[in-house]
Fold Lipocalin-like domain-containing protein.
Amino acid sequence: MKRNSRFYRIVRWLGNTELFFRPSRQIPGRWELCEYYSEPAGELFHVKEDQMKRENQFWKLDFGTGGNFSQQTNLPVPFLKGMEYCKWSTSKGFVFLHYSETSHQAEAYRFAVEKGILKLLKKDKSGRIEIFGFFRRPEKNN
């Protein structure tokens, strides 16, 4: 009985604390798009890293530790228009990009961080993929 209560306390502690390895703790910092999917006109297309390099396409994100967000992009996919600088937050597997500190309007992206890759997914109201991007940390020599 005593062993079970210790185990229960450890499990409860693990569930209630925000540990370092949790995905939301790994988001702050700079990320660069390395591959993406999009479905703007009802047809899914996939752009790989080598194609992005050939066409000089990029999307750079900066999730500041103070909740500040900035981006730079030249992708031919319409998203986050007019949101070069805004605030960000996370909740229950979503990253929210807020238009302003006073506005309740925000863009919601599903996210995961696995093996050093940040995955962001945004769908439109009909369920089509607006963007499903795979991001890496920038290389040190950039």
Observations:
- Helices lie at 2-16, 23-26, 49-54.
